[in-house]
Design a protein that fits this description.
It is a single chain. This protein is an alpha/beta fold and 767 residues long. It has 22 helices and 29 strands. It has a six-stranded mixed beta sheet, with helices on both faces. A five-stranded parallel beta sheet has the order 4-3-2-1-10. The chain has a five-stranded mixed beta sheet with strand order 20-28-27-22-23. Helix 1 packs across helix 14, helix 6 packs antiparallel against helix 15 and helix 12 packs across helix 13.
Length: 767
């Protein structure tokens, strides 16, 4: 009787859940229909000039007060006359960015209120849309909660935690009265030298799409129009993360099949997660600038993936079709190319050229009015979805938790779960809090190396000013074990030794050395490098300190995997901190001294040599070993703990996977140590033989679990044919019959798949 009751209750619960899902979808459909009617009514009243104004995005600089030389004045103020001209004469529909540096919430309220006040006096009273790069928290608002950059978020392998971070970021962005976030970056970072690696979720398509969908759902919630959520922006479509030279905004050469296999899946997942806007890759692929690619922006994005949101250019990239890519003879031709390819909105960002040229192009018949109406319909639809017509400016009193301690605690948890222990000889870590410690190195005493770019300013070069109250690594260690137990010597700047003799002398008097190496803040082309090696001065400092015989704890604060082989060899232990945000110093200290057990795993392959930049999902022909083949310093997914996890009893529920079935895979994981810990269980699958050379292995699922000391848990994964599919020579996603190998840690198991199956990219969501 009890079992019958339980089954009845469970069935009733399922029915209620299904009913709730149906109602939620019905509400969405009804809301969309209602918005469509409003949009169509408004669109019918608009002139060509008003429509093109909606497609034009300007930077806040152009509505800011300036001095006689044209320099923006401080403190920053909106120039009402300029603002009125932009909106009343040119009907500009959206603005973005900051004029130089972060503002407090009060000034953001003044900016957005001024813009919306003027917009509400224009003929049709269409509210403006304001966007910001809130890529690891609301980065341009003082007092906000700054999280680790995306690469650190990826290292947590904890989608639920990143969803929470996304919710907080959305809350604080709306608390800044801004409804549009230019995040997340969904680029698959295949080239380790690329300066925007830290803005991504790493090198693996499955990891990128999983973490990307999680943060999008956090940003947008169940209703993107409520006062605590924002619309997300998928970027940068498509193939941005694999420039041939490794430098930003430089050409890539990516075959279509390869593009669909590795770079497209995160965008498929993001569209399924509800992302409403998309930003385009600034570079060119196979000689075609993406901003002019009708194939990618219309055929793939609109027709295949059914994306119906806003497509926005990146910074000045329409004019660059003329001035940089040389595919348009004039800037006017560039506008025609971009809009006809599929752009809905252009970040101009300073002048009226796009506006004027597009009006002329429509009048001349070179851009059809139907194309303009498509774009404006999408823009207005998103504005209605965001609730801007009803609430163009938020209420300052609705956000009491902005910058709160509870939000900071989540940031600290994300940082703590991201930091990756790569080496721990003789279990030197965790350090005893009674030790006398030397802290040295260029990243020890600066917030710039913890926050990175897009932090208070574009390049993050003023982090020490705007985040002065936050703990650097040095300050956090001093608070952790007492200043009396800590000695600081700089030892080196980023590119030169700085009285390293004093650091060596101090090391001789210390019990342990915390050596903080890495990079200063940067982003985009400013971060381009000619040498992936860590600067020689930093390596030299590591080797000098190692000669003292004292244990060297290497802490890497960097946005990409610089070659650190020699410094790592000199170290007793190595921590990868990535760019862990404002709570990063505290998180590093928590792990160094054992208050947190590290659980991060690498989201990229850490190379050993500058010319051995092979991703983990290499081809079998790259498995030669040594300097001729795959030989990383640390492999994708690697990360140690202060406890020991043992895997055993890997099994599947059947030997063969058939079409439209699932294969249930389970493995037992035991915490064999004496400390509680978190472990990420990574499921890799590889096809042993296929018509197209298979990857050595591919991540197909993962799960992060908590295990108490001595505890065993069984982890279960379910795999379908779509999870083992690949993109064939016809550009179709298909599963091919053959023998497959499952790998989880040191456990392996084989199964067979017998049916050839092809998947629809949009309806099945499989790639």
């Amino acid at each position: 009787m009890k079992n019958i009751l339980l089954i009845t209750v469970a069935f009733a619960h399922c029915v209620l859940c299904a009913s709730a899902q149906v109602k939620h979808q019905t509400d969405i459909d009804q809301n969309k229909t209602a918005i469509d009617q409003k949009v169509n009514s408004l669109l019918a009243k608009m002139t060509l000039e008003e429509k093109v104004g909606q497609m034009t995005n300007l930077v806040v600089d152009v509505i800011s007060k300036t001095d006689a030389s044209g320099k923006i004045t401080e403190p920053h103020e909106i120039d009402e006359q300029k603002l009125e001209e932009r909106i009343w004469k040119y009907h500009i529909g959206s603005f973005q960015n900051v004029a130089g540096h972060a503002y407090d919430r009060k000034h953001w309220f003044e900016i957005i209120s001024a813009i919306q006040h003027v917009a509400m006096q224009d003929r049709l009273k269409i509210p403006a849309l304001y966007g910001i790069d809130a890529i690891h928290g609301v980065t341009y608002t003082l007092g906000s909660t700054l999280f680790p950059q995306e690469i650190g978020m990826a290292a947590t392998y904890n989608p639920g935690l990143i969803h929470n971070a996304g919710e907080i970021s959305a809350y604080e962005t709306r608390a800044s009265y801004i409804p549009w976030n230019f995040s997340p970056v969904l680029d698959v970072a295949k080239n380790q030298a690329w300066p925007r690696i830290y803005e991504t979720f790493g090198e693996d398509p499955y990891l990128v799409k999983t973490m990307g969908a999680a943060i999008i759902k956090g940003y947008q919630g169940n209703n993107v129009g409520d006062k605590y959520h924002v619309t997300s922006t998928m970027k940068h479509f498509l193939g941005y993360g694999d420039p041939l030279s490794g430098k930003d905004r430089t050409p890539a050469w990516i075959p279509d099949r390869y593009m669909r296999e590795y770079f497209l899946p995160p965008f498929v997942e993001a569209i399924a997660a509800g992302a409403r806007t998309l930003m385009v890759n600034s570079a060119e692929i196979n000689g075609v600038p993406v901003h002019s690619s009708k194939y990618l922006l219309t055929d793939v994005l609109r027709k295949e993936l059914k994306f119906d949101g806003i497509v926005i250019s990146d910074w000045m990239d329409v004019s660059y079709l003329h001035t940089r890519h040389h595919v348009a003879a004039t800037e006017k031709d560039a506008v025609a190319l971009g809009v006809n390819a599929g752009l809905d909105m252009c970040i101009v960002p300073y002048d009226y050229n796009f506006y004027n040229y597009l009006i002329q192009l429509v009048q001349e018949g070179r851009v059809p009015m139907s194309r303009i109406d498509e774009s404006v319909r999408r823009i207005l639809h998103v504005k209605y979805e965001l609730g801007l017509f009803d609430r163009p400016v938020g209420n300052p009193d609705d956000y009491p938790d902005f910058g709160s301690d509870k939000f900071k605690a989540v940031s600290r948890q994300v940082a703590g779960e991201s930091i990756t222990l790569l080496k721990n000889n003789n279990n030197i870590l965790p350090l005893k809090k009674t030790m006398r410690v030397l802290v040295t190195g260029p990243t020890a005493k600066t917030m710039g190396s913890l926050d990175g770019g897009w932090s208070y300013t574009w390049q993050g070069e003023e982090d020490d000013k705007y985040a002065a109250e936050q703990n650097t690594i040095l300050k956090a260690i001093q608070q952790k074990i007492g200043k009396q137990n800590v000695v600081y010597e700089p030892g080196a700047a980023f590119d030169s030794l700085q009285n390293s003799d004093a650091a060596v002398a101090a090391a001789n008097q210390a019990d342990a050395i915390v050596l903080c190496l890495g990079e200063s803040s940067y982003t985009e082309s400013v971060g381009n490098i000619d040498d992936l090696n860590l600067p020689a001065a930093q390596t030299e400092l590591a080797q000098q300190l190692a000669k003292t015989g004292k244990p060297v704890i290497l802490v890497l604060a960097e946005g990409r995997p610089r070659i650190v082989t020699l410094a790592n060899n000199a170290a007793t232990a190595t921590l990868m901190a990535y760019l862990p945000g404002n709570e990063g110093g505290n998180a590093v200290a928590d792990i160094l001294f054992g208050d947190v057990n590290p659980s991060g795993k690498l989201p990229f392959t850490y190379p050993r040599f500058p010319n051995a930049l092979i991703n983990y999902y290499r081809k079998n022909i790259e498995n030669g070993g040594g300097s001729q083949g795959y030989n990383p310093l640390y492999e994708f997914g690697f990360g140690l703990s202060y406890t020991t996890f043992q895997y055993h009893n890997l099994r599947a529920d059947k030997p063969d996977l058939k079409d439209k079935e699932t294969l249930t895979i389970t493995v037992d994981v035991t915490n064999a140590g004496d400390r509680d810990g978190k472990e990420t269980v990574l499921l890799f699958i590889s096809e042993l033989y296929a018509s197209i050379a298979p990857d050595t292995k591919r991540l197909r699922a993962f799960d992060k679990i908590d295990l108490k000391a001595g505890e065993t848990k069984t982890v279960t994964f379910k795999i379908s044919a779509g999870d083992i599919a690949y993109v064939n020579d016809d550009g179709k996603t298909a599963a091919e019959p053959g023998e497959f190998k499952i790998q989880i840690a040191n456990q392996t198991l084989k199964f067979n798949y017998a049916t050839a199956t092809q998947f629809n990219r949009q309806t099945d969501g499989k790639l």
